[in-house]
Amino acid sequence: MARKKKMVAGAADIEANAQGPPLAVVPTRAAALLKAAEVEERDGQLPQFGQEPHPEELVPIANRKLVENKHSYSHKQFKTDLQQYISLAPHSSLVANVMSKAKGKLLGDPVGELAKLPVLADMLRAQGHGCQLVTLSSAQMLEVLIEVEYKEFLYEQKSKPVGEHQRWDRSKAAKYPVEDGAIYCLGWSFSSATSVRQIGTLIPVSYSDGAHMRSNAAGILLSTVSLDSDHHVVPLTYACLLTNENEHSHTLQLEFSKEMHGEAYDRPGRREISDQDKGMEAAWGKVMTNGSKAFNRARHRGDNVSTTVMKPGGSEARRVYKQAVKALTLPRLEEVKALYSPQAAAYLGQVPDAAQYMSRSAQDRFTAI
After folding, report:
1. Is 26 helix (H, G, I), strand (E, B) or coil?
2. Kind and range of the H or E element at 122?
3. CB–CB of 178/145 below 8 Å?
4. Do residues 113 and 106 touch, judged by C-beta distance below 8 A?
5. Helix, strand, coil percentages for the chain (3-state, nearest 5)
6. Is the peptide bond prior to 177 cis by the omega test (within 30 degrees of 0)?
7. pLDDT tens column, 189-242
8. Residues of 176-193 as b/e, b for ≥16 C-beta within 10 angstroms?
9. Alpha carbon of residue 146 to chain centroid
10. pTM of structure
């Protein structure tokens, strides 16, 4: 039994090092397999499975039969084959799910099971689809546990009166069931061959968002979609990850989208619509070089405005801000902005108008065209 690794972190560490939680654990003897399979770790990022053809000598006989039938292999079957790695207790908390998987082991031969994962991804890539599996080291897994439990702790504190707030107990990290040298599987990203072929024919605008899933695959579903010339929705990429929406998960989504769609995705004149989220903003600045942020949805920023102004007046500040966001003309926009309180004006003044108001964003877009 490998010893447990101890680690503690404060809020700053959690914010800076947040990672996503695992799906399964692989014992330390899988290290040789990982090395032989040339798992790539680029620029300090997490290992990316499924990027290169999997060495045949590492593929168990049972899995080679899958490879032979790869032309009929589907993404639906891929999700079914991975179900044993993501089966979790429905409606339980993210902390409970992460703790459960930290204690778990892959069923059967762990080395053989590990070899199967990139093979499944490779079969889809051979058909022109984009598919990627992501893993975590034991140190990264420990950071995951700290992040998800710390955030759940903060949510609990918000529901209590101010006088009953408690301090975060850092000693909890010493009790996390994480093994040194273990490898954890985080989830996967997917892009269909159709979207890869059609990216050049779609409008130069895409929309990204995350949704919390309430099934036996608790976690988040990150999606990026666009429209064709007839305004049909075309999914570009999506990811199923056991994690929160944070800088790490948004970075994975943007990197995968950029890898699959290249210059057609990250090019001058292209706009991305998303929530106003610190993690998304940080990921965007790190990954994207040519594309620009268009209109960021107002929900998160509206809530922040309400908090900044505080009561009384917080809800009114949010209402006024949403009117400004939806203003259809520039004169109407300026008219509503004149109603801002000094606190709200100072907070919102930190963000460019084109990144938050539809009328200003539309004017800039048409001017560029």
Report:
1. strand
2. helix 110-125
3. yes
4. yes
5. 50, 15, 30
6. no
7. 888 888 888 888 888 888 888 887 655 455 788 899 988 888 888 889 988 877
8. bebbeebbbbbbbbbbbe
9. 17
10. 0.60
The amino acid occupying position 219 is G
- pLDDT, tens digit, 9 for 90 and up, residues 291-307: 666 555 555 676 777 77
Of the candidates 125, 144, 146, the residue with the CA atom closest to the CA atom of residue 249: 144
Tell me the CA end-to-end span of the chain in Å, nearest whole number.
63
Closest CA to 86 of 235, 239, 238, 224: 239
**Phi, psi for residue 345 in degrees, rounded to 5:** -65, -40
Determine contact, residues 247/283, Cβ cutoff 8 Å: yes
Q: Which of 304, 312, 286, 287 is nearest to 351 (CA)?
A: 304
β-pair partners for 292: 271
**CA 113: distance to chain centroid?**
25
Which class for 165: exposed (0-12), middle (13-18), buried (19 or more C-beta within 10 A)?
exposed
- What 3-state class would DSSP assign to 184? strand
Amino acid at residue number 321: Y
Contact between 81 and 156 under an 8 Å Cβ cutoff? The reply is no
Sign of CA pseudo-dihedral 214, 215, 216, 218:
negative
Residue 41's CB is within 10 A of a number of other CB atoms, namely 11
- Distances 66 to 33, 48, 116 between C-alpha atoms, Å: 20, 21, 10
Residue 330, Cα to own-chain centre: how many angstroms? 35
Q: Residue 334 has what pLDDT?
A: 92
- Residue 52: which residues within 8 A CB-CB, separation 6 or more? 38, 40
- Count CA atoms closer than 13 A to 138's CA, side-chain side: 18
Per residue in 92-143, pLDDT tens? 555 565 555 554 443 333 445 555 666 667 777 777 888 887 766 777 777 7
Alpha-carbon span 363 to 206, nearest angstrom:
18
Q: What band does 262 get if pLDDT is binned at 50, 70 and 90? A: confident
